[in-house]
Amino acid sequence: MDLRILFYIISFLVIFELILILLIKILKKDFKWLINTEDEKPYFDKKKLKNFYKNSFDQLLGWDRKKNTSGYEISNKKTFFNIKKNGNRGKSKFKKTKISVFGDSFAFCRYVNDDETWESFIEERIKHNVHNFGVGNFGLDQSYLKYLKLKRNIRSKIIIFNFVPETIARVNSYWKHYREFGNIMAFKPLFIEKKNNLFLKKITIKKNFSPKKIHSHLKGIKKFDIFYDLKFNREKFVFPYTVSFLKNIKILSTILSNLIFHKLLKKKIFYDKAVSKILFQNISQSHKMYNNISLASKLKKIIFMMNKQIQRDKKKMILIVSPQLLDLKSDYINYPQAFFSNLPKEIICLDLSKYINRKKNFQKFYLKDKYGGHFNKIGNKYISKVILKFLRKRKIL
Q: What is the average per-residue pLDDT within 23-40?
């Protein structure tokens, strides 16, 4: 090879590497999904950490909605929520409670007011309380543990677990940061399998741990979180950055170009496109997990364990699967659909994706938010009718 050509190639690679290093350093300040070796032991802001310990931390669950609190969220408008003394969302309008709901943000119903949740629409129809104990970003494992924590005070005979298909990833996560980059406060419990049985691996992080103390526990945490090798290690930038870029060139070229346009033009639409690209990738990856025999088997074991316990408690368990808007746009949505439709008859399960997909204009049921798409008031009203019809058809109500 001509030495001049070799020199130009090497010069180009060196310049490209330097530009890439500088670009990642600048862009990752405002975009937590770009990670490098610094994120192995991320910086914990002491003030934010203190507020998390005070307002959200839960030693059993990882995080939770605190009793007797209220707040608001902003999507396309400001919406308000109230958590009562029993830990449920909204007012108890009736004397008796018929249903208790546990789950993630689709159970909690983010970005709508207390009287716009699917639970509130059902209780108006049945004239009994439907208590909402949902918590954002919970996995099915955390929702079950919250039920166990509160079950002594639960009088309802019907227990609903409402969650998104992505729960298969959440139940395998021990520290959210290894899959949801930048979500560094989210340490959670984890069910692990030993000799075909499930055992609970508790959270090792304690309340008021300092950042240094948290860092000292990370070595042990990464051993039990499959996403450290499956995702975090694969997608972090390490020297040379050019190699890391080329490994994930398809998604990174889209993300980096949108972030550059966002920086130059100051238009939020480009930032949102970069976020959507990340979230859509996570959704698709979680769908493919249902095709993994080991991961699907573990989720099934968790479901069987839950059902067995709730039967012991002389209650009836119902699973309700709520699709995010991005779920319905994925080419792999049939994987979770097949999993839930093939559960044994003893497991009562309603997969809402099949009902929503039937509607040509199903997007009207969702908020236009960049975080996967939550149901709006119209969507919650629609699924409340589907759920109520299902419960009556199965003679549960």
A: 96
Beta strand pairing call for 69-74 and 78-83: antiparallel
Element (H, E) at 81: strand 78-83
Residue 388: count other Cβ atoms within 10 Å of its Cβ: 16
Distances 374 to 8, 55, 249, 369, 377 between C-alpha atoms, Å? 51, 24, 30, 7, 10
d(CA 274, CA 34): 11
Structure tokens at 394: 């199965």
Sign of CA dihedral 309, 313, 317, 322: negative
Measured in degrees and rounded to the nearest 5, phi and psi for residue 201 equal: -95, 110
What does pTM read for this prediction? Answer: 0.95
- Evaluated on CA atoms 130, 102, 113, 283, the torsion sign reads negative
- Strand segments, DSSP code E, in 302-390 are 316-321, 348-351
The verdict on whether omega for the bond into residue 189 sits within 30 degrees of 0, i.e. cis, is: no
SS3 259: helix
323-364: pLDDT as tens digits: 999 999 999 999 999 999 999 999 999 999 999 988 889 999
Render pLDDT for 175-227 as a digit per residue (tens, 0 to 9).
999 999 999 999 999 999 998 899 999 999 999 999 999 999 999 999 999 99
User: How many other C-beta atoms are found inside a 10 Å radius of the C-beta of residue 80?
Assistant: 11
Alpha carbon separation from 125 to 118, 119, 201, 249, 381 (Å, rounded):
11, 10, 41, 52, 11
Structure tokens at 205: 């992080």
Structure tokens at 34: 């770009």
Angle between helix axes 3-27 and 249-265 (nearest 10 degrees) is: 60
- What mean pLDDT is reported for the chain? 96
